[in-house]
Amino acid sequence: MNNRHIYVLSAVLALIGLTLFAYKSQVLGFPLQPQEQTRVWTIEAAVRFDPGPAAVKATLRIPNLTPGFSILDENFISRGFGHATRSAPAGRESQWTLRQATGPQTLYYRAQVYRDASRIAEDTTPPFPEQPVLDEPSRIAMEGLIAEVRRQSADVASFTTELLRHINHAERDPYVSLFMSRGSAPADAAELATIFLAGASIPARIAHGIQLRSVPGPVQSQQLLEVHDGVQWLYFDPKTLEQGLPPDFLIWWRGDEAIASLEGGSNLDVTLAVQQNLLDSMVVAERRAELTGSHAMDFSLFALPIATQAVYAVLMMIPIGALVIMLLRNFIGVKTFGTFMPVLVALAFRETRLLWGIVLFAIIVSLGLLIRFYLEKLRLLLVPRLTTVLTVVVLLMAGISVLSQKLELQPGLSIALFPMVILSMTIERMSIVWEERGASEAIQEGIGSLLVAAVAYVIMGIAWLEHLIFVFPELLLLVIAMSLLAGRYTGYRLLELRRFKALAPSGSGP
């Protein structure tokens, strides 16, 4: 198999892994940091009224198109009322109905919203508005104002800004003052602007929203003017003339209507409140995947039982440890006893901790090696010899645990977590290397194995890396890609440069 096939396969695996990672992190919002939290605001509308003798129908405008924010969850709270939600020109509406009610009533709408930069107003391009129906003097004043503002502007945005400036200085503008003196215009600047913009054939509407803040308590709704420039909606503050959505501004409803309406009752009052909370980002991501219809959570490790998740949280780090061993062996040149032995020892270090783990490992291997040399003199066959060594290892581990209990050394009790078979095979392998290549080579490989296990333990113990691999297991495809590429490496290892130093040409003297 040629190198091109390896390169293409590695590139495909890396591309798949990075694509899935980007989708889950950028689109679904899977957290990149452990214990990452997302700011979530709880918004609440309390609708209070006194019912009449007839049937009651209370309607509340609720958030729908909220640029920059998404709704995580919402609840409708009432006692005995029928409830339904529906779409309306102003957005969405929540309607409570009851055949007969007695005493003051309070209905609640509560929702959790979070910042979502990918969220935009996804409504379609609006049609050109109809010309407002005005009397002749008002129509002439409107046309004069539009002509003057058009001369002072270059596009829809600047036209809107200039128009609002004229409206805010109505006492000094002859067209606006004449228009208002005829009684044809509302007193509200945003509503008046929509009339003039309709006369200029520019789609516009009023957006009502609240300022999300960290201090809990009641808030007042504010108005923004939305103007469509043919491509997108632009936002203007009708008082300050500032363009754009203010920071942490949540659009609640749109249109000229009030936030709530009531049939069959009186004394309608609506109170808005907001409270900021911190929520686990993973919970937000799960909810976002559910709302978007994504099956990413169904096929993630989070779909497993909690006990199984704890097991895979450890198992998913084994490929990372193997990657560390591959780099240290193939590129650095560190000698070890086998490939997977250091990884399993590194896993045992997670419980014994590094220093105590090295000490316990050295004690077990040293004592087991002495027993192995003694068994060599008995000239036993391979399988009986390994069985004997394994049994000796178990007895040594049990003896060290009992001794640690007597000496009140808690780390010594964790020695049972060491993989017994791996220790037995290490002792066997080390004794063979000792006999065939000498004590120096055996000790070098033993120290190398401990060194690699220690490095793997440090890397596998990084909390951020554990979180990243567990939440984005597709990143292990990158490990496979790197392993495939490293499998074709035939160059020098770093520690081999010392071996071939004598072959390097000596520098010539002056």
UniProtKB/TrEMBL annotation:
The keyword Transmembrane helix applies. Coiled coil: none annotated. The chain crosses the membrane at residues 301-325, 332-349, 355-375, 382-403, 409-427, 447-465, 471-491. Residues 23-181 form the Inactive transglutaminase fused to 7 transmembrane helices domain. Keywords: Membrane, Transmembrane, Transmembrane helix. It comes from the Bacteria. Residues 258-503 form the 7 transmembrane helices usually fused to an inactive transglutaminase domain. InterPro entries: 7TM_transglut, Transglut_i_TM. This is Membrane protein.
